[in-house]
From TrEMBL:
Presence of keyword Membrane: yes
This protein's UniProt keywords: Membrane, Transmembrane, Transmembrane helix
Transmembrane portions of the chain: 12-31, 43-63
The protein's name in its UniProt record: DUF805 domain-containing protein
């Protein structure tokens, strides 16, 4: 039987710290990818939502990028 005193508060604080670190490591590159493809960077936050992150990846992979459309007119 596990008491509340056995789990401790330090484990709880460490868990949230790791969650924030992982969120930053995942969101930052996707934010930049979205901006480079011509989509708003805030779409990178969708990587934190389960199943929506997969939809976002497929959307970015197969959609026509606004950055390509803007660049095609400059050539």
């Amino acid at each position: 039987m596990i008491n509340e005193s056995m789990s401790g508060n330090t484990m709880w604080a460490g868990h949230w710290l790791w969650m924030v670190v992982i969120a930053i490591v995942v969101v930052a590159p996707v934010w930049r990818i979205c901006r480079r493809t011509g989509y708003p960077g805030w779409l990178g936050l969708l990587m934190l939502v389960p199943m929506v992150n997969l939809v976002l990846l497929y959307f970015i992979a197969f959609a026509d990028w606004p950055a390509n459309k803007a660049g095609a007119g400059n050539e």
